[in-house]
Amino acid sequence: MVAEIKPSTDPPLLETSASEPSFRARRGRRRRASREAAIFLAFALPNLALIAVFTYRPLLLNMYYSTLDWTLGAPTARPVGLSNYLDFFQSAEAGQVFLTTAVFTLATVFLSMALGLMVALALNRRVRGAGLARATVFSPFVLSGVGVGLAWQYIFDPTVGALGAILRSFGIASPQWFNNETLSLVMVVLVYVWKNLGYAAVIYLAGLQSISSDVLEAAAIDGASARRKFFSVVLPLLSPTTFFLLVTSTLNSLQAFDLIRVMTPLGRGTTTLIYDAYLRAFGGYNQAGYSAMLSTVLFGLLVILTLFQLVFLERRVHYR
């Protein structure tokens, strides 16, 4: 008599021992992922909430206010749709405001970056007192714009200012910086460049010090002159730094306010887009809806310029 052998229903011992660690590993990864997600949300959510409340909510409210005929301080406002936008773009004021904004922005960005690069090249040399010179160049950037404006207002004063006294000592009459609209814009541009020159210089200095000396030595061995090394090696390697400065300096110049407000309170020749928004709301017009419209136009201009720089100009950047 032969006994019947039934197949065992128990899982093989080898399969059980191999799948158990794999299951534990997957469970451990899921727990770590959940824990990291919880930590991320714990840190990110408060900041996201603050940004939503104090940045995006005012932005959306400002866009809404731009469609109102609202006198500042009045308890009621009348919806007017896009009338504020049509009034601005069909007025002669729009061309002058955009021209002043463009001249101020182009002049301050170009001069700050060009002079900042020259100063950075000088500060990159290993000489005695280089640290003190770097601190001296950078210090105006951290000063208050109001304080800088008041100090330079005194210097440019044609009657009691230091600049007028120096010019008179050479027999030259002091220009009327505050009465002439062109000279007022020149004066504000010069002071803005002086204040922000150190920022561009420090950023360019960091870019110069990140360039490998091996590259420069290889160029020298190939017989490249100092001018050829600068334009063919150094300047292309600085293109990421130049692009960063171009974006940040353009945004800062378009939003420059404190120096213009302090040095030219009436905005004579210096009425940029952001300063016109201030004058419309608080300069006697009390046109809060019109001022909100100007702020919305400035926001759109910032977005367009930033996208243009990121989409088109970044292609010319040489990342190492």
TrEMBL record:
<protein>
    <submittedName>
        <fullName>Carbohydrate ABC transporter permease</fullName>
    </submittedName>
</protein>
<keyword id="KW-1003">Cell membrane</keyword>
<keyword id="KW-1133">Transmembrane helix</keyword>
<keyword id="KW-0812">Transmembrane</keyword>
<dbReference type="InterPro" id="IPR051393">
    <property type="entry name" value="ABC_transporter_permease"/>
</dbReference>
<dbReference type="Pfam" id="PF00528">
    <property type="entry name" value="BPD_transp_1"/>
</dbReference>
<keyword id="KW-0813">Transport</keyword>
<feature type="transmembrane region" description="Helical">
    <location>
        <begin position="97"/>
        <end position="123"/>
    </location>
</feature>
<feature type="transmembrane region" description="Helical">
    <location>
        <begin position="135"/>
        <end position="155"/>
    </location>
</feature>
<dbReference type="InterPro" id="IPR000515">
    <property type="entry name" value="MetI-like"/>
</dbReference>
<feature type="transmembrane region" description="Helical">
    <location>
        <begin position="288"/>
        <end position="313"/>
    </location>
</feature>
<feature type="transmembrane region" description="Helical">
    <location>
        <begin position="185"/>
        <end position="208"/>
    </location>
</feature>
<feature type="transmembrane region" description="Helical">
    <location>
        <begin position="229"/>
        <end position="247"/>
    </location>
</feature>
<comment type="similarity">
    <text>Belongs to the binding-protein-dependent transport system permease family.</text>
</comment>
<keyword id="KW-0472">Membrane</keyword>
<feature type="transmembrane region" description="Helical">
    <location>
        <begin position="37"/>
        <end position="56"/>
    </location>
</feature>
<dbReference type="InterPro" id="IPR035906">
    <property type="entry name" value="MetI-like_sf"/>
</dbReference>
<feature type="domain" description="ABC transmembrane type-1">
    <location>
        <begin position="98"/>
        <end position="311"/>
    </location>
</feature>
<feature type="region of interest" description="Disordered">
    <location>
        <begin position="1"/>
        <end position="29"/>
    </location>
</feature>
